[in-house]
Amino acid sequence: MKKLFSVLLLVGLLTKGLLAGEGMWIPMLLNSLNEKEMQSMGMRITADDIYSVNHSSLKDAIVLFGRGCTAEIVSDQGLLFTNHHCGYGEIQKQSSLEHDYLTNGFWAMNKSEELPNPGLTVTMLMEMEDVTDLALTGVTNDMTEAQRKDKIAVNNKAITDKAKERSGFDAEVRSFYQDNQYYLLYTQTFKDIRLVGAPPSVIGKFGGDTDNWMWPRHTGDFSMFRIYVGKDNKPADYNAGNIPYKPAYHLPVSLKGVEEGDFTFVYGYPARTSEYLPSYAVDLIAEKSNPHRINLRQSRLDIYGKYAANDPKVRIQYASKDAGVANGWKKMIGESKGIERMNGVEIKQTEEFEFTKWATISKSEATNYTGLIPAFEKAYLRLEPLKIAADFQMEAGMGIELFNFASKFKVLVDESAKANADGKKMEELVKNLQNQTTTFFKDYHQPIDREVATELISYYIQNQSVDFRPTFLNSINTQSKNTINDYVNKLFDKSIFVSEEAVNALLTDFTMKKVKKIVNDPAYQIVMNLKDFSEKQIQPSVKVLNSAIDSLQRVYMKAQMEMRKDERFYPDANFSLRIAYGNVEGFYPADAVYYDYYTTLDGIIEKDNPEILDYKVDDKLKQLYKDKDFGRFADKEGKMRVAFAATNHTTGGNSGSPVLNADGQMIGINFDRCWEGTMSDLMYDPKMCRNISADVRYMLFIIDKYAGAGHLIDEMTLIQ
Ligand code: ARG
Ligand code: ASP
Question: Is the pTM above the cut of 0.85?
């Protein structure tokens, strides 16, 4: 503990404005910005070992998985680890009643059993280059925002065209630090990715939504895939004759485990953060927008839950919808609470006060910065009602399944309105809608939607002023819930879009004449009213304001970097490869409550509860626990560790990222954050922000002892 404290002190001294653990850093800049600090925290490798273009490095083992997660290569045959929740879609698509891999798990016992996944890709960063000067060539201060954007787009097109031609790789220029810096990214995308292994959901999704966003956690959230390539080791479309990819580097996997205070880092693809927003924006998100969205989602979850409790069929029908609504709902609650707990808005206000003071005192260029904060204030004042109106349109309006479904038929109305309406196109649209209809009604329970509609419409009317809501709401008798309920019932009784039969009758032998049936449908009319309201009254102004805010944000970022010259800044996440580093550490989530830094299999057995679906424990796992059959995967005390918490600054997209130790060996896989720290996308708090990772020893234990797929471990480079 003493050692940890002195390390923290040192880090504090080194970084002043930054907090221990905070930051998502650009790998190619570690050398100048972070290496010393990382080593002072315990790292025994160099920045060059992590990222290099001259020789193989850790970077060569990290890939973007699909479009939203990270994965890492752990063998010289292109074997990948990612999260179970990242491979979920693929595992589901491969599943059928005879082969229910979601329920039972899947393990390829040899390469011929590995399953191809059409459409799934992984992307590898080959090289990165600062092209700021080139991107900004010809950009001058007197340009309008639009002129500036156009000029940069032209420059970047030239840069990427040349880069592609020269390298043979894909290339893209991406903006960093709010359009102040530009980097050219060379990438390679692999297209033949096969499923190798997945634990059953009772392990890979253990804890489910009950434990989601929370520590302590016991989820074995991993799955395995393999990259296949052509005979030349280059990306190729799926072909049975493709061979496993031979990577420039694969991560060694350590069995040594983690102890409190250990240095760790996370290497992956964080999607989006907004760490440099002004107080007005943080206030808008945390205190104005989130609360309504939370309430509206809460209503839906309550209703789903009520019906699901009484009807097992409904529970399955609404499981996935519930998970989606709940993931965002829980995240927003944690985020708003976190901002409030750390007085986030006040902290930002103090920073802005200091900033304006600095801008006023310092002469030179900085003098034109004094108007920034008032300009933000003005812009956000105007944005606020529009943002809330857009939230309501999405969460309250489109949260009603009937409206959402009816809106899909607009394509038919549009196509038929064309002077040269195309019969073939029409046929395609109809076929597509027929498929959507089957999918929709498979999981649709009308009584739920009626109740949801009554609740959401009541909330909409009570909480949105007439100026900022669609006109259909004004025609509703709002005397009481009952009158609103009457309105909803009439609507549902009249609309064809709640009946699979009626919709199928509409689509069978569809002709232009039938378009009237859509246009005259009361639910369709309402959803068009909702859409119209958004497209005409909300979005145009939002677009203008957001563009103005973007340019303020660019100047504010630049100005902050000038004001705090001696500090390091990390760019907001933008789905590019980053490094976050910190220490393995527990935390105090509440007064007198301490959460230890790791969980064990004991905790899974403790949670075992057949009444709660999320806490069903696998029988074979119970047996292994009873037999204490942990092999070489147990910790020093003979316990089976499952997950651990650390201070790495992560966000969505970091799921599946490897967690590495001081020697750059894999010790875990990142999959979530603790609830108390979910405001880290806006503001990081070292006391509360923890990333959650599955311990790699638990993953190997499941592969070896549970699944009997030890041949996969034999492929890896294990550090004993
Ligand atoms: N909260 C995690 C993330 O944002 C995991 C979500 C998947 N798990 C779940 N139980 N829904 O992606
Ligand atoms: N669960 C997130 C993901 O899937 C990670 C996070 O938000 O911490 O990327």
Answer: yes
